[in-house]
């Protein structure tokens, strides 16, 4: 069966398509600005006008959605992260601009406080630096409502607080945002693969030697991932996510098998950086190796894949 292309094609179990991909973008203030992220060669932080060009390319390529991460300046960061629900913040201006120009492109908004806190944590901290669950959930609810008001299609809490999916769902319903979908980062690990992302959104200096071990999952666990996913589904999540990707394919498979939910996976910044570094050294064939990783996510049960390679991969898949 492996001898000829025709028989290989007939027994192929999974086919990667541009419609499986979600592009990830970092947004900055300004005009006609593209700021390279040094630890992510090929990824730029984009001002809103540049972001619109990227969105147009996603639409052309058949990429269904764009996940937005703001990289606001240090000037707006506070202890209480109040910029996160400012109706006119960078994220909301980007959302309105994108929805006006490309209404059919799905927009996924990150819901976590880390771009907006002076300490770089995803939540609000007490005097000892411990991230407090309940006050953080209140803040995340305000943030989700503000994003929905701006036109965000999907709010995606990436903070790992307990009970936030239910609280956000109730608040969205009460405010009449009955169509806003919730993508829960349900099994998000306290991974060392997020370093380049923290550079990109400008939170690494704020976080300093801090870590997120008191709320993100222990890398050694996978039964716990199932418990987290189960809670988020019960609280009203429409989609669940496993993150990071490649080192957690076992978790992805278990989650998909256990719940059969729309299950997304995030090929995170460190995975991107690792592949790019090898490619830039001429050690790996970029197109082959990137498509292999993305196909592996589908094989392991992913319905959708957030990846910084989405635009490149969609071009390759279309033979461009
Ligand atoms: C934080 C957030 C992180 C990522 C997405 N949202 C980093 C973190 O938890 O510190 C990581 C994404 C990536 O590494 O590409 N809310």
Topology:
Elements: H1 5-10, E1 21-27, E2 34-36, E3 44-46, H2 48-61, E4 65-70, H3 90-101, E5 106-111, H4 133-150, E6 154-157, H5 164-174, E7 181-188, H6 195-200, H7 204-207, H8 223-235, E8 239-243, H9 249-259, E9 263-267, H10 269-280, H11 286-299, E10 304-307, H12 310-317
Parallel strand pairs: 1-3, 1-4, 1-10, 4-5, 5-6, 6-7, 7-8, 8-9, 9-10
Antiparallel strand pairs: 2-3
The structure holds ligand PBG.
CATH 2nd-level architecture: Alpha-Beta Barrel
The tally of beta strands, per DSSP, is 10
CATH superfamily: Aldolase class I
CATH fold node name = TIM Barrel
Domain count, please report it.
1
Q: Structural class of the secondary elements?
A: alpha/beta
Tally of contiguous helical segments: 12
| Radius of gyration, whole Å | 19 Å
What ligands does this structure carry?
ligand PBG
User: What would the average pLDDT be, to the nearest integer?
Assistant: 97
- Spans of at least 5 consecutive residues whose pLDDT stays below 50 are none
Pfam families: ALAD
GO molecular function: porphobilinogen synthase activity; zinc ion binding
Catalytic activity: 2 5-aminolevulinate = porphobilinogen + 2 H2O + H(+)
Protein name: Delta-aminolevulinic acid dehydratase
Describe the structure in your own words.
- The protein has one domain: Alpha-Beta Barrel (TIM Barrel).
- 40% of the residues lie in helices and 16% in strands.
- It has helices at residues 5-10, 48-61, 90-101, 133-150, 164-174, 195-200, 204-207, 223-235, 249-259, 269-280, 286-299, 310-317, and strands at residues 21-27, 34-36, 44-46, 65-70, 106-111, 154-157, 181-188, 239-243, 263-267, 304-307.
- α2 (48-61) crosses α3.
- The radius of gyration is 19 Å and the shape is globular.
- It binds ligand PBG.
- Ligand PBG binds at residues 110, 112, 114, 122, 158-159, 194, 197-198, 212, 268-269.
């Amino acid at each position: 069966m492996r001898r000829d292309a025709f028989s290989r094609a007939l027994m192929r179990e999974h086919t990667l398509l541009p419609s499986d991909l979600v592009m990830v973008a970092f947004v900055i203030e300004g005009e006609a600005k593209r700021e390279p992220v040094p630890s992510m060669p090929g990824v730029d932080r984009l001002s809103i006008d540049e972001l619109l060009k990227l969105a147009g390319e996603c639409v052309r390529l058949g990429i269904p959605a764009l996940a937005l991460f703001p990289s606001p300046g240090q000037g707006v960061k506070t202890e209480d992260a109040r910029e996160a629900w400012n109706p006119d913040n960078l994220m909301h201006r980007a959302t309105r601009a994108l929805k006006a120009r490309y209404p059919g492109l799905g927009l996924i908004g990150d819901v976590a406080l880390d771009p907006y806190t002076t300490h770089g944590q995803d939540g609000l901290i007490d005097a000892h630096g411990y991230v407090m669950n309940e006050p953080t959930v209140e803040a995340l609810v305000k943030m989700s409502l503000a994003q929905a008001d701006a036109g965000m299609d999907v709010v995606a809490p990436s903070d790992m607080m307990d009970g936030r999916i239910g609280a956000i769902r109730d608040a969205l319903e009460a405010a009449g945002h009955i169509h806003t979908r919730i993508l829960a980062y349900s099994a998000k690990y306290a991974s060392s693969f997020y370093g380049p992302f923290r550079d990109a959104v400008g939170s690494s200096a704020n976080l300093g030697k801090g870590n997120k071990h008191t709320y993100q999952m222990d890398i050694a666990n996978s039964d716990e991932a199932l418990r987290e996913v189960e809670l988020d589904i019960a609280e009203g999540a429409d989609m669940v996510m496993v993150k990071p990707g490649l080192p957690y394919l076992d978790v992805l498979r278990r989650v998909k098998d256990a719940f059969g939910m729309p299950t997304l996976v995030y090929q995170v910044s460190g995975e991107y950086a690792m592949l790019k570094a090898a490619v830039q050294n001429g050690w790996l064939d970029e197109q082959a190796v990137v498509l292999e990783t993305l196909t592996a996510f589908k094989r392991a049960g992913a319905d959708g894949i957030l990846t910084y390679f989405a635009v490149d991969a969609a071009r390759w898949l279309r033979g461009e």
